[in-house]
Amino acid sequence: MWLLVAVVLALVVAAIFFLGLGSKGDGSVVARPTMPFLPPRFVVLAFAWLLNALATLRDRVLPPEMKIIEMVHAHWQTQALHAVTRLGIPEAIPLTLPAGAKAWPSVESVAERVGAKDVDLLYRTLRLLASVGVFREFPGRRFSHTPSSALLRADHPATAKSTVSCWAQSHYNGWRGLHHQIATGEMAFMHMHGGKDLWQYYNEDDNKEELTSFQKMFDEISRTMTGPLVWDFDWERVAKDVGRSKDLVVADVGGGLGGVLAMVLEALPQAKGILFDQSTVIERAKSSERWTQGPLQERIAFESGSFLNRVPSADIYVMRMILHDWPDDVCVKILENVRRAMRPNGRLIVVDSLLAPEGQYTRQVPVSVELQDLHMAVMLNGKERSEVQFREVFEAAGFRMLSVTHTRGIFHLVEGAVAQ
């Protein structure tokens, strides 16, 4: 009985934390904070348990024919999201009812604002999305936002606009080659893009817009998913283990625009940071407001290069969503470069998803690790790893695995040190 009460209370708190403020009665949307705090761990676990229980129940009662049809049709929603996002529909619909307005904008007025010619098809697309909680329809073919559709706006603090753009284009197309990769071993993305890998594809002039979306997507993930990496891990303990009271250096290898490094530096006020990535990424990062304004601008250095060749010297190395891009032999090479550059008594912090042991499944929300694992194979011939697989890669590169920290988010931390 008390367990049931505890679970119910946990779910109520979880609803407050996770759902925040949503739609008002008139259809207005109040954007909830990106992630100013996290609910207690027991709330997160209770929320995950509920979602998994509901998913399991649904799987049991849904006829197998309907399940297969539902899975086959899922990609239609992806393209509907991409269509409205690319056309600027979310920005053409206000978050709140304008002063003096008696009704939400009609689909005709939205189409006029964005220059769409097929008004009826736009209505049908918005109707589809409204049927799954993305946008809200009112009489007279009028639409307002929901908390989900608001995330498609570029000005939302937790925007997912670039994430939608990224997954719906070349990444989406790469999956069409999965059967070929299974049959031949050739990477699916390369097969579907004329022999070009992901990075060669992005570096072509015609695909610069997609590259920008890809880079922004990582920044979007950082804003909404990075909190647990800092709040659920004892960075001060790691700094003490390193034993360097002065000149402590944290290197974010393949750190993109530096969202993770910024939060780590805030957690370690005595440390300086090195953001290491390809030159095109570093040039964008240098102009980021987080590094040009505020206290962190005096504590950051930028270096460009390839971690396949070298990494800068540092005490603590952070590698978030890097190793899952690569097969085991390349990961060993990357980590060997880290080991050679690491200062005495340094630490390696790998941030990635964690696969469950064979025969078990994560059912992680919103994206299972099994799905992420297959995506990395299709796009880059990479993989997600279990704790056992991380240990094998670490040991092959001359590291010993010290700990695994499970966070309240979808990414977890694997800590290592040079093997003695």
TrEMBL record:
Tell me which Gene Ontology terms the entry assigns under biological process.
methylation
Q: Which UniProt keywords apply?
A: Methyltransferase, S-adenosyl-L-methionine, Transferase
List each copy of the O-methyltransferase C-terminal domain by range. 175-400
Q: Which residues form a coiled coil?
A: none
> What are the O-methyltransferase dimerisation domain coordinates in residue numbering?
70-152
Stored InterPro entries: COMT-like, COMT_C, COMT_dimerisation, SAM-dependent_MTases_sf, WH-like_DNA-bd_sf, WH_DNA-bd_sf
What's one GO MF term for it? O-methyltransferase activity
Pfam families on file: Dimerisation, Methyltransf_2
State the protein's name. Omethyltransferase domain containing protein
